[in-house]
Each structure stands twice: as C-alpha cells, then as structure tokens.
Design brief:
Blueprint (H helix, E strand, L loop, with lengths): L1 H48 L2 H8 L1 H4 E3 L10 H11 L3 E7 L16 E3 L1 E9 L5 E2 L5 E4 L6 E5 L13 H11 L3 H26 L13 H13 L9 H15 L1 H15 L1 H8 L16 H5 L4 H19 L3 E10 L4 E8 L10 E6 L5 E5 L6 H13 L5 H47 L1
Antiparallel strand pairs: 1-3, 2-4, 2-8, 4-5, 4-6, 6-7, 8-9, 9-10, 10-11
Helix pairs in contact: 1-5, 1-6, 1-14, 2-5, 6-9, 8-14, 9-10, 9-13
Length: about 450
C-alpha cells in the first residue's frame, strides 16, 4: 500500500513538472517572438547611441564644433553670453545655460583634432503682453563661448527635409526611447521592457537540466549537485553538431552569460519608461530623495526672476556651502536651468558624489527671486534606491568611460544574436511541425484509398 501511494505521489509530481515546464516553454516561446522586433530595435539604436555625441558632432561639425582654444583662454562671462544669445533670439528666454566650459585654467582637455565642442544652450518661448506664447525657431542652440558667436540651432528631434542629417541622432534617440510615439510610445516600451524582464527567470528555469521526478524522489543532494555542475557547464561556450543544435547552444549560452548585464539595462529602462512600476517595487525598500518633486510655485520667481549671472553665483554658493557641510568635493559646474512655470532655478554640478562627469546629478533648486534653497539631490550618499538607479542609468547610457561603452556594444551584439537564434529555432520547429502534419495527412489519405 505504501509503495502504491509513493508511486501515485511521484506520478502526480511528474505530471506537474511536465505541465509546468511545457507552460513555461510556451510562455518563453511566444513572449520571445513578441519581443524579437523590440529587442532588435532597442539593440541597434542603443548601439548607435553609445557614440551619439561623437556621431552628432561629425554629422553637424559646422554647428557643433569650434576650433581648439588655448588651455588658459577664459570664456565670456554669463552676462555677455546671455546678451549675445538674446540678440540672436530676441523673443526667447534661456531655459538651460551651459556652464561646462567654465573650468579652472589649464583644466581643458587637449584634443588632437584641433577642435572642441561648442557650448549647448536650450531656449524657450515667451508670452507677449496679450498672453500669447511665441515659440522660438530653434529650441537648442550652439554658441562659441569664447567669442560669443551664435553658430546656429535646431528644433531638437524634428525631421527636416532640407537638412535630414541635422536631427538624425536626436531622432534615433527618440526612436530608442519612445518609438517616435511620444508618451504613449514610452509606456508601450516600458511594458515590453517589463515583459522582457519577466522572461529572464523563465529562461533560467528552462535552462536547468530536466529530469524525471523519480530521480529527486529520494531527495538526493548528490544528484542536485550533479545537476548544478551540469547547469554551470552551460555557461561555457560550445558548438553544436548541427545548425539547430548550434543555434540552441548559442541561444542558451548568450541568455545565461549576459543575464546580469541585461537585468541592469532593463531595470534602468523601467526607471525611464515605467516609473510607477519601478518605484512601486523599490520605494518600499528605501526612501528616495523627493524634496525636488514637491517644490511649490514661487509667484515672485515667475514674474521677477534674478538675472542669470546672479543665479549662477547663487547656485555656486549654495553648492559650496552644501559641500562644506557634508564633506564632498565640488569639481566643476555643469549647467543652470530656469523654470518659468515654477519660478525656480536648478544649478547642477559635477562632484565627488557622482559616478562620472557625464552622469553628473549633484543639484540644488532655489527660488528664482529670493535665492532661497528649496531642494537638493545627490546621486550617492543619501538613498540606496537613488544610488542604484543613478548607477544603472550611468551604465545604460555608457557614461562610465570606455569600458561601459564596450559593455554596451557587446550587449548590443549579444542581444541581436539572441533574437536571431530565437527566430531561427522557432522557424526550425515550425517547419518540422508543418512537415509532420503533412505527413500524417498523407498517411491518412493513403489509408482511405
């Protein structure tokens, strides 16, 4: 009787394992097919965006590059540059003032090419006396900070038939970020990213050696260790004896080896495109910095903002006081943003709290009229959620130096090949099933005759 009960229990476990594995296999197959095109799109556009700045400057050299200036040459003051920009765009206000070229003497990087990037400013429209809003011809402009010459501008991300290369890289960025479909595209990509993320544990489960339940009925630790060693052997690259086996081995190997990096990129993608889900998962674990999200509108800051020159000095002073208070080092300014809607200024700088100068996030917000400190944000040292999110974003955007760029390019190649092998495996099985169906029909037809 005991043997019969044991057999029935093992039989039930066996059926459950088979059904679960078959269910996960179908989920992996059809979810994978759904994601093939998005994976190819995100991988190829992401590979181009690794060098987005260099490619953009190469395509628009006359607009975005200036001659290399002497290392000790000082740029024009904030007030002088503001006047030059307002002369070129009289019915616009500066919403982002580039401060990255205000470095200590001799700190600039020597470039063999003999050229250096121009300063990048963002401008917005203004309302007239009647209250009508007039948008400027361009919203992103490029300026020589040493001579004050306004080199030109563009409507960022808007395609132009006359100048198709002018916005090529911004359009690729928008394609990668939102499939050129605005907020709706961002949300769609966010859900597809979540689907990709959920498919990873399914793939990991399917990669585990599949055995009969009879082999685990005695709870043998030795057998489990053997299966673990067998599974770890899948992490080593090997070739198959046939095209199908070779594609299967490549697909499994790529899925296992690149899983950690893929998870980082996917979580970062969720933080961009599906914030409610991302922060809904991580906010309960640790409180992130939110004071800058709750800044109230300053009525005086809206109508009587201080000058940009005074705003830069105020932002610098507030950051220096903060650095002295918490013991970090302020390395160089990045930029100043003006929100006419809120009546506030945001001053951003690169500090020892940041992962790199490209991913600088050390920021202070202050009232545009009084200069009162309203909020702060730091990438590291305050919230574990912010530390993780900023780190993932820096890796995602290849902002940690040459090695992060190489990782991104490697992941691009791996993701493309993963999608290609998935499609080839599905086509092989689909054709085999079709061939089997035709054979059965042929046999059935012959039997009738």
């Amino acid at each position: 009787m005991a043997d019969t009960d044991t057999f029935e229990r093992i039989f039930i476990i066996e059926v459950a394992l088979i059904l679960n594995r078959h269910t996960f296999l179908l989920l992996h197959r059809w979810l994978g097919l759904l994601l093939i095109l998005p994976v190819l799109l995100l991988s190829l556009t992401g590979g181009l965006l690794v060098y987005k700045q260099e490619l953009d400057q190469w395509l628009n050299a006359d607009l975005m590059l200036i001659e290399q200036y002497d290392l000790y040459t000082q740029p024009l003051s904030v007030g002088q540059l503001q006047k030059r920009i307002q002369t070129a765009y009289p019915q616009a206000r500066i919403s982002w003032f580039d401060l990255s070229f205000y470095k200590e003497s001799g700190y600039q990087q020597v470039r063999k090419s003999g050229v250096q990037p121009a300063a990048v400013f963002w401008i917005a429209g203004m309302r007239n006396d009647v209250g009508h809003y007039h948008a400027p011809v361009h919203n992103q402009i490029f300026v020589n900070p040493y001579s004050g010459e306004v080199l030109g501008g563009r409507k960022w991300g808007v395609f132009s038939v006359e100048q198709p290369l002018l916005n090529l890289m911004p359009l690729i960025y928008k394609l990668h970020y939102s499939v050129l479909a605005g907020q709706e595209g961002r949300v769609i990509l966010g859900w597809l990213t979540l689907a990709w993320l959920l498919m990873i544990p399914v793939g990991m489960y399917l990669s585990w050696p599949h055995h009969s339940a009879l082999r685990y009925s005695n709870k043998s630790k030795k057998q489990w260790r053997q299966d673990l060693l067998h599974w770890l052997s899948f992490w080593k690259y090997r070739k198959g004896k046939s095209r199908f086996q070779n594609d299967f081995f490549n697909h499994r190997w790529l899925g296992l080896v690149f899983t950690p990096l893929v998870v980082v990129f996917l979580l970062s993608g969720l933080s961009y495109n599906l914030k409610p889900v991302y922060y809904g998962i991580f906010d309960p674990l640790n409180q992130r910095q939110l004071s800058h999200k709750a800044i109230e509108t300053s009525s005086l800051g809206q109508v009587q903002p201080m000058s940009l020159e005074l705003a830069v000095a105020t932002g610098q002073h507030l950051t220096e006081m903060w650095a002295k208070e918490q013991g970090f080092e302020r390395l160089q300014p990045v930029g100043l943003s003006h929100s006419a809607f809120k009546g506030t200024y945001l001053y951003r700088s690169y500090s020892s709290l940041d992962y790199s100068d490209e991913s600088a996030k050390t920021s202070v917000w202050f009232d545009a009229h009084s200069g009162e400190l309203l909020a702060r944000f730091q990438a590291t040292g305050a919230s574990k959620v912010d530390v993780m999110t900023a780190g993932f974003e820096a890796v995602h955007k290849s902002e940690l130096g040459w090695w992060s760029r190489m990782l991104s390019l490697l992941l691009m190649v791996a993701s493309v090949w993963l999608a290609v092998t998935a499609l080839r495996l599905w086509l092989f099985k689909y054709r085999a099933r079709r061939k089997g169906v035709r054979k059965k029909r042929s046999v059935a037809k012959s039997a009738k005759n």
